Fold:
Amino acid sequence: MSEQVDQGRRTWVAIACGAGAVGGVAAAVPFVSTFQPSERARAAGAAVEVDIAAIKPGEKLTVEWRGKPVWIIRRTPEQLAELPKLDPELADPKSLRKPDELTPEYARNGWRSRKPEFLVVVGICTHLGCSPSDKFTAGPQASLPNDWAGGFLCPCHGSTFDMAGRVFKNKPAPDNLEVPPHAYLSDTRLIIGEDKKA
Ligand code: FES
Structure:
């Protein structure tokens, strides 16, 4: 997985690579237009509006909010179906730890989001702050268990997270990835940094 930052728009473009037996299959995430506040407002932590219409199932868009990468991932039906099966392997499957800090009330559910299809999380590992890599492709691959169902791998010290940003047991990262305040302004527009408008 690689990520590039377009400094002009402060939007990361993620390229997720599948690690299949015959080599990687890369799928470029389309560049999604965003409405951005001024630099001064951004520094103060202004909310960020994002157009999510172009994100296809299985793709991820990264935007910046408060200087942090926020991932918006459109999960496939197959990825959603795996989530409940993983509960016994997770450190905090019900998102009960530090709920005020990590999981807003509307995301304290099995998929950790307002809409099951879209996951919105801060892409910073809760161990020492590295940014985990996309490992969306299920199946055996380097540094992951053979029954891997898709998720994220933090390359720093090996913490793994599922497609809801929930950390697996017995990993250095103590907690799930943070779900930032967010709300839907419409079916295709998301605001990150506010959650009163939904
Ligand atoms: S920073 Fe992610 S495992 Fe250490």
The longest strand covers residues 11-20. Residues 125, 127-130, 154, 156-159, 172-173 surround FE2/S2 (inorganic) cluster (CB under 6 Å). Helices lie at 39-43, 77-82, 99-102. The mean pLDDT is 84.
